[in-house]
Amino acid sequence: xxxxxxxxxxxxxxPNKVLDGLDIDIYxxxxxxxxxxxxxxxxxxxxxxxxxxxxxAGSIRFDGEEVTGQSEHGxxxxxxxxxxxxxxxxxxxxxxxxxxxxYALREQTAMTEQEIKTRVxxxxxxxxxxxxxxxxxxxxxxxxxxxxxxxRAVAVRPEIIFYDEPAEGLDPINVTRxxxxxxxxxxxxxxxxxVVTHNLKAxxxxxxxxxxxxxxxxxxxxxxxxxxxxxxxxxREFIGERMRKVLRAS
Length: 250
Prior knowledge:
- This protein is α/β, with parallel strands linked by helices and 250 residues long.
- The protein is 41% helix and 24% strand.
């Protein structure tokens, strides 16, 4: 059984149909990357799966339970099992790194302050940022802010992590570092990962499976190598011949 089962998802903003009957399954333990053109609904899909956006129609089941249309209290319980790395990191600039990472632990768990201190230290070490608890977000580079935001997302040890453009705005070295972190957290925490990215090279590096959104639907899904060999016109146009050569050579 899929961890997430999405069926017939629809969401429009006025006359603009962004999601138009979208279906997708997310299986436990995999890294699945959602790709597609800008404005195709990739980030919107993640927000819908977290209950941050109300959809117009369709069904979302999480771990066998229908979550579409559930109460805010129900979504709070569901979200406790999901971590999310937002595109802009969304750190609290008025709080220290320690307070940022500890925030969800205080809100969602009954851990003691000593247990929280230990968990924060362990989690910062997981993202290769040990010992920076007292620093302010404003003192961090873009890559470090991303990793602190990731530490905050995984501190509660979620079953699934959503990554919204994790490599956006980062230099190649930090893109590689984030890719390694996604794969490392999959192994060390046994989490399921759903990634939204425009970075095709990163997508082909980290993914067990790709899902391409086009015209509001998932039009193709499969292992990265199947996308390189695909004869589907939409897939070939999206990847492009130049990028296909780069990906084959990498």
